[in-house]
Amino acid sequence: MREHKNFWDRNAGLYDCFMRKDRAVYEKMYELIRPVVKDKTVLEVATGTGLIAKHIVKAAAHIEATDASPEMITEAKRGNYSAKLRFSVQDMFSLTYASKSFDVVIVSNALHIVPQPEKSLREIKRVLKDDGVLIAPTFTHAENSFPGKVKAFFMNLAGFPLHSKWTSEEYLSFLHQNGWAVRNSVVLKASFPLTYTECVKSEV
């Protein structure tokens, strides 16, 4: 995880500016998420600067938002004006929470940038209640347009850690193989194709 923390620590101050170009698609994503988290206890892993958590916190009962990057969490805390939202530095592979603690877990645009995404899914499954919901929107880079491929190339040169290049179908299959049943899925058009998914626990 060290290489990823270094990259994200270095770029924490630029992250919100980088994401601004996809503001419209993120607004659509917030609209999809809010009904799912309404009055629920929520965990977000890999929260970054807390963009999602801050935009949905009014709907939720409480949100714990975590990231492995101390600099990202520093940025997130700067704009946190809700008593229902708490930020902390944590490893998504080894969370400090008790088993079956949360109604909803969100992991957004993170599974494709870690070397062992299935390990993170196991930890998420541990802290999620049996009837809980996993929200896992992920950029599916295998479906990049030509401009997207060019953008990804330069991001790679800058040190962006991209480990999994799924198509939308491959990503949904990956979730199924790791014990999740997809109950809702839609591909949103962003800088890169964004596969929004809601999942519940299942037996493989």
TrEMBL record:
Among Pfam families, the record links this protein to: Methyltransf_11
Give the molecular function GO annotations: methyltransferase activity
SUPFAM superfamilies according to UniProt = S-adenosyl-L-methionine-dependent methyltransferases (SSF53335)
Q: Which residue windows are coiled coil?
A: none
Q: Name one GO biological process term.
A: methylation
Q: Which InterPro entries match?
A: Methyltransf_11, SAM-dependent_MTases_sf
Could you list this entry's UniProt keywords, alphabetically sorted.
Methyltransferase, Transferase
Residue ranges of the Methyltransferase type domain?
43-135
Its domain of life? Answer: Bacteria
Name the record gives this protein: Class I SAM-dependent methyltransferase
UniProt source species: Suilimivivens aceti
Cite the source lineage: Bacteria, Bacillati, Bacillota, Clostridia, Lachnospirales
